[in-house]
Amino acid sequence: xxYHLIYFYLLxxxxxxxxxxxxxxxxxxSLTFTIHVGALNSWSVLMFLIILTVFLGILLLYFxxxxxxxxxxxIIDASKTDLLNAYTKNIxxxxxxxxxxxxxxTPLQSYKTxxxxxxxxxxxxxxxxxxxxxxxxxxxxxxxxxxxxxxHLVLExxxxxxxIIIDLKLHMYNDEYMRKIRELLSIIFSSKNTIYSWGDxxxxxxxxxxxxxxxxDQIKQxxxxxVQYHFxxxxxxxxxxxxxxxxxxxxxxxxxxxxxCSHRPYKHKTDIWSMExxxxxTFQEDLKLTPNHLKDCLVITKLAAVIEKxxxxxxxEAFMKNCIK
Length: 325
Fold this sequence. Notes:
The protein is an alpha/beta fold. The chain has eleven helices and eight strands. It has two domains: about 1-100, no CATH class; about 105-325, 2-Layer Sandwich (Nucleotidyltransferase, domain 5). About 55% of the residues lie in helices and about 15% in strands. Strands 2-5-4-3-6-7 form a six-stranded mixed beta sheet, sandwiched between helices. The protein is rod-shaped and about 125 Å long.
């Protein structure tokens, strides 16, 4: 309706200019023919058109000042509501899909587990020493058994076809065992080896109070990779903000309070990822289904591998498919 009114107003102005032009040239015949007014004289037609033009101008001005803003506001509000509803529906769909599809954690490859304590056969420790000499990549995690008041160091020997997991109880009182364990750890933490950890490796090791074994200097010589530190930057660069996220910038993929992305659970750049959430949001796997300290190293290894091999979502999906195979 308003478009027709504007069109008629512009057409009327064109006719008015035609009348003025004809009157200025004294051509009243062409004027009368142009506007089809018959018996009315030219000046009457001119006055009538001027009044009509002013009236329509006032009407259009009223529409622009009072009606158009309210209609635009209604349109904008409706658009915001539609976008919000669509976004909310999308978030709910993502949450439902994640909860339904979450599976148990799957390591990259098969593994054998050895529990090392005062009762372990010396042959087992000798075998582990030989395996450590042939291995260059390890993952490391520590925990404390509050029931037995014992500190444990969990280590994974990352090998080509399978892994070896050892759960090392560090409070041993047998001198022969202590000597062999010190030898094993000295080989693992040598300068040629890479040690993956979740958090600061020095803290992980000192948490187990193995400083009595005199290998703290040896640990500093190893190549230490804090997977937790590298994961945050990798994840943000791999899983970008959604197109409608207020935190999204063209060149920066940092976390922020304005972020509304469901796939980015942390909303501040100083937040750090927990191991459980890292494996959950990257691989849609749940560690809580089978809680086990021995699997922590397997998780670290898997996250370190995807950081090194995948640079975008497509490569992450391809990595996951290879893991399933």
